[in-house]
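Request:
You are asked to prepare a plain-text protein record giving the amino acid sequence and the backbone structure tokens, at your earliest convenience.
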Amino acid sequence: MSGGPVFVNPFHRPQCLAAAAPSGKAKLTHPGKAILAGGIAGGIEICITFPTEYVKTQLQLDEKANPPKYRGIGDCVGQTVKGHGVRGLYRGLSSLLYGSIPKAAVRFGVFELLSNKMRDENGKLDSMRGLLCGLGAGVAEAVVVVCPMETVKVKFIHDQSSANPKYRGFFHGVREIIRVDGLKGTYQGLTATVLKQGSNQAIRFYVMTSMRNWYKGDDPNKAINPLITGTFGAIAGAVSVFGNTPLDVIKTRMQGLEAHKYKSTMDCAVKIMKHEGPKAFYKGTVPRLGRVCMDVAIVFIIYEEVVKALNKVWITD
């Protein structure tokens, strides 16, 4: 019974090869799964973090030219709750929620589509290719979703904080903006938005790809605990905040109700520097830092967990 032929089993060998394959080559995520998982993650995340987004936007719109309405984060929250109740911190949520779901869906869908084509023979994505895929994902989400939705959100929040609000709700606001400014009225600040979203996702996916590769080492299919994914996401979010907050400030100004004051993205940047100084480019950094760290951590955790669940019921190669 010691001869070699006894052990040559035509059914046994493919099983061994199939079992060995995953440890050598990383599993790819189907873009369809990424779109679905991204949309779910984006919807849940924005419901949790919106109040910090509201405060950030209010502080950025609170220009020094008109004496400042708010003395800081706490005062902004206090005045909002006093005047409109806790629900006031969620004013404009609908516009952001309608945009957050497709935004995350486009972001992760495009990222997986691009990254699946740029991985090496073992399915590994290096950091620089992760940055390029993130850049592509950021530009796509900016053009398809972010610019029109963010323009509506900023105008809506700005309108609600004025003495006589003219928008009765999200859809009424959209109709009024298009009626007054045309469809191009929802694409104010496109250049700044593309720069912001492109750099945002390039930085985040670069950091996430780098840390994932470091953590997994030689095993591309090594499982990552959700807490570790969240930690990596929070770090990626923090790095992106310090990297592009000036672009976020410019984008917000270009999309506000007083956007007519600026002839272009560059004109906006020059006027902010001239009239308010360099510190103005970092207005709202603290509330944005808190929101973005939570945002990115939550999104990546939910995204990864939803993909794991989809892999069990949606089989793709």
